[in-house]
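WP5 quarterly update. Target: M48 family metallopeptidase. Source organism: Luteimonas rhizosphaericola. Length: 263 aa.
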Amino acid sequence: MKHAFAMLVIVASLAACATTTSSTGRTQYVGAVSQEQLNQLGAQAFTEAKQKGPLSTNSGQNAYVRCVVNALVQQLPGDQRAMAWESAVFAVDEPNAYALPGGKVGINTGLFKVAKDQDQLAAVVAHEIGHVVERHHDERITRQMGAAGAVQLLGAVAGDYGQLATQGGSMLAQTGFLLPGSRVQETEADVVGQRMMAQAGFDPRAAVGLWQNMIAAGGSRPPQWLSTHPDPQSRISELQARATQLVPTYEQARAAGRRPACR
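Structure tokens (predicted):
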């Protein structure tokens, strides 16, 4: 009975998968888990991260990050804007940031050393929010579940359901939240994030300086979270080209009163 249940869970999950199109026009394969489940997983991961800490108790840093996040979130569609967005600042020297399904944003204090102003910080935060709004976590989980489906079914039939459940939970955490995205996803998050920051009234040209700072800070070995990102020089060229195209959007946002004053 338990073997049949395991197979039903996996088959039902994979059968629910579907194709969709991202805002950049890219076809995605998603739906192995529901958005509600994704949000719950994101909230759980965020809670665990905050419990592990260490959290920054600097009120200025926390207010600064909240201000940037809130300004960017205001440019999202209504359903995404309505999520329970929250941020946390971690007292960790490594320059890192992430956003999770359900609207959870984490920033390491080490990022302030390379993100020199609010526009550069917005470039990072917008990129990470781009992963969430473009359903990249969903896409990674769906892809991994599809690839592992046959192996999981064999495990269920063999009577190892307990191990299967444990491995499945670990796989979701690793693939959905802990591992970096593919280069395609990283490029898409760049496109979406730079557009978002311009719409929010942050200077899209700051994204170029931010990534130059990140590369310089990493020396010959860039930070681990950049390991699957596009070639640095190609990326900077693309950011520069998009920034030129987005300057009118930025100027329109400023003229409309969207003038963030976070720091």
